[in-house]
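Q: Can I see a sequence and its folded structure?
A: Here is a first one.
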Amino acid sequence: MAMYLQRLRYGSNNVTHFDALRWATSGSARAMGRTDIGELAVGKQADVAMFKLDDIRFSGSHDPLAALLLCGAQQADRVMVAGQWRVHDGAVMGVDMPQLIERHKAAALRLRQKALSM
């Protein structure tokens, strides 16, 4: 979203997907005054998200980073947080997704009923 907003102001030729990657990684770390995050390097926090690009929406892109940012990458195939795998084959590890969905539906229903009774 930040990239699109900046493109509106400064033009798409002046704001690239490489700028957005920098803002999201080293730029964000610098803004927070952190030296232990913001890049993949020895001794730094190991958070990584991996995406498959074999879906039709990515087929017209010749740049994998641009495809991720501009073509609607919505779900990571694999995610590592603090050196531990948390998502594998698109599924959150250790989460009973059907049970979580049912709990979410029940909570949403309670909120809706509460709002209607006000």
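Q: Show me another, different protein.
A: A second, unrelated one:
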Amino acid sequence: MTRYIIIGAGAIGGGLGGRLAQHGHRVVLVARGAHLQALQRGGLRLRSPDQDVRLPVTAVAGPEEIILSDEDVLVLSTKTHQAEAALTQWADVPVISEGRTVGTAGERLPLLTALNGVTSESLALRYFDRVLGVCVWMPAVHLEPGEVIIRGVPRSGMFHLGRYPARSTTDADTELLDKIKIDWDGSEFEVLLPADVMPWKYRKLISNIGNAFQALIGPNGEFGRLVKAASTEARQVLEAAGITVTSDAEEAQTRSDSFTVRPVPGTPEVLGGSTWQSLSRGSGAVETDYLNGEIARIARENGRTAPINARIAALARRAAAAGRRPGDLSADEVARLLGL
């Protein structure tokens, strides 16, 4: 029976792992600090529009606390700026079969990259032979230790999965993807298996362009026009680089067919995305260098510039390092700093 090792049990990893455990699948959540202690002490509290449940889960701090086997599937769901540290931690862990070591995790086990951005897949190939990209659409929030809030109904979220790169797909990959689809579809998610997952991930990247603005400004002014300017710049950069992006119409239709977002009883009225959550928790770092900063990188690599995305990435990076909270800047201040 497949066991899912969720490396990074925050909003996405905790929500995914919690739902899988709730529906009878073998799951190990990898967490740290107060969150790990809460999971080990009282299980995972999973809150959604229709449920408030506490689930017994297996939670560990790292690979030294479990024994890996060929039945394991690793799911990387950290923030992108934390991904390389996690990859190096897990790649060389021995895989045991019938009491003997048969290889390492990097050699033997599939790794799913369930995190934002488009960089983790190529990062993972430095360490893992078999990488499967995951495009995540899941309205989930992790603010308190031991707790994840999921706001999607009737499905908790939607995932596009595929081998990376797509041309590497084997019959074994197809079999594994079909198995994952069965397991995750049956755990209140929807899994789609496109021929190539990366156009979906680039479309999600465009959606994540607004994360930095939401995190920095919060309720402190209307920032829609700023997001539009940054998104337009991002689209121009991707088009100039010849990168294929799933169309807005296809993405919107697919997502609306899967879930809608509803409030969760007893939770704050305002709940933001991943970058907003990082600032709210005072984590000291954010992933926007791999979102807006990714657009800047692609632009520079192709002899162009992306000043709006480069500047907002820098603002978010500095805000996190300084311990600022959502809404510490106004929309007018950010517009001035971006020259808009």
